[in-house]
């Protein structure tokens, strides 16, 4: 790709230009940059592992934070008023992003909060003051059910962005919790009591390395055509090779499997 046509961190507002440790965005990020940072439309992205999907999430977060920029250069943050929810299938992934984003956004006064089974030391006040809530589907499902039951609609009203990592989890037995969360967000976004809130215009951004039915997912999340991005193996930073090896069959399946084990350990 022509370096003159590639987006760089200098294309971001001045307060955000130190967010990334690199100068230019890669090919995937370059293609998604206008949709991530210059629009509020829903997105679904399928791209190989290691291709830079986390940066897409961060561009969408910066899009939300850009509402706190005044006069083009001054970042004046109001705590907890525009929330980002990050949902990942495992606590390990949640905690990895928590460390990364606390380090990246913490100096701006952005408050990141972990909601998992490993962190029970939070309160309603913690949730209300959090800017980025990182959680698992099961935990956030439980927290949001409790909030609705107790009439705590103010918490939902502040949600501006919902990031879904490894969205192919929907095809897993655990996918029911994630489906319930998205359906609940859609339902609450249409609640007359939240008509003037951020949630009424909530943005969904879902990514995965493997989305076989990306069109169905896009329809469910109400993603317009310009928000559907599918990338193939050409985006993989380390190319994979495929080899097919054939072996002579044995007298029975047991001996054949034993022979294959020997071959596997020998390769």
UniProtKB/TrEMBL annotation:
InterPro entries the UniProt entry points to: DEAD/DEAH_box_helicase_dom (IPR011545), Helicase_ATP-bd (IPR014001), Meiotic_Crossover_Helicase (IPR052247), P-loop_NTPase (IPR027417)
Gene Ontology molecular function, alphabetical: 3'-5' DNA helicase activity; ATP binding; hydrolase activity; nucleic acid binding
CDD domains: DEXHc_HFM1
Source superkingdom: Eukaryota
Pfam families, A to Z: DEAD
SUPFAM superfamilies recorded: P-loop containing nucleoside triphosphate hydrolases
Sequence ranges assigned to domain Helicase ATP-binding in this UniProt record: 34-229
PANTHER family given in the database record: HELICASE FOR MEIOSIS 1, HFM1, ATP DEPENDENT DNA HELICASE HOMOLOG
Protein name per the record: Helicase ATP-binding domain-containing protein
């Amino acid at each position: 790709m022509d370096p003159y046509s590639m987006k760089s961190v200098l294309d971001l507002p001045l307060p955000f230009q130190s967010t990334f440790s690199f100068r230019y965005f890669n090919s995937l990020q370059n293609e998604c940059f206008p949709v991530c940072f210059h629009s509020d439309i829903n997105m679904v992205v399928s791209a190989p592992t290691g291709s830079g999907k986390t940066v897409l999430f961060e561009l969408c977060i910066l899009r939300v934070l850009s509402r706190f920029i005044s006069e083009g250069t001054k970042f004046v943050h109001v705590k907890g008023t525009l929330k980002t929810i990050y949902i990942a299938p495992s606590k390990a992934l949640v905690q990895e992003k928590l460390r990364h984003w606390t380090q990246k956004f913490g100096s701006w006064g952005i408050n990141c909060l972990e909601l998992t089974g490993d962190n029970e030391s939070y309160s309603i006040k913690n949730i209300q003051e959090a800017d980025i809530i990182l959680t698992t589907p099961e935990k956030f499902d439980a927290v949001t059910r409790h909030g609705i039951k107790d009439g705590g609609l103010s918490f939902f009203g502040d949600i501006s962005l919902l990031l879904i990592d490894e969205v192919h989890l929907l095809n897993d037995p655990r996918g029911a919790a994630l489906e319930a969360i998205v359906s609940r967000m859609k339902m609450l976004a249409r609640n007359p009591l939240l008509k003037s809130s951020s949630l009424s215009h909530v943005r969904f951004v879902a990514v995965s390395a493997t989305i076989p039915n990306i069109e169905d997912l896009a329809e469910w999340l109400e993603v317009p055509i310009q928000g559907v991005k599918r990338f193939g193996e050409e985006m993989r930073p380390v190319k994979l090779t495929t080899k097919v090896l054939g072996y002579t069959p044995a007298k029975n399946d047991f001996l054949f499997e034993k022979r294959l084990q020997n071959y596997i350990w020998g390769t």
